[in-house]
User: Fold this.
Amino acid sequence: MSEKEVICNSPDDTFAIGERLGASLTGGDVILLYGGLGAGKTLLTKGILNVLEFDIDEVTSPSFTLVNLYKTATFDVYHIDLWRLDSGMDVASAVGLEEILENENAVTIIEWADRLGEISFTNNTIKVTIVGDGDEPRRISVQ
Assistant:
């Protein structure tokens, strides 16, 4: 996907962006999600997993477990949430990111990606920034 910004006026719109993004994924892709608390990062993730035919009722933000693994017919999807980790620590090591990225048939989705610091990826990386909270529309940019 090339860089674009979309205005989402409802949670359904955010979910649909996730579905479109999910349909474009290939093994090894990394999706970095940026946005405040309640912006819609997990909802977007549910859209991605919906298009991969995974039961979205099983998709929750791994705030306490840090990493959830969802096995779909297409990919293993690692859903990582860095919210509880201090950005001053080596958060990549704390979640075993290097080992996760070795799985070439996996897609990795990272919420609160800003906590990774200046890490660089050799994998195809998609950055998604969500701006807005509460009942206001979301501005979602994908690059």
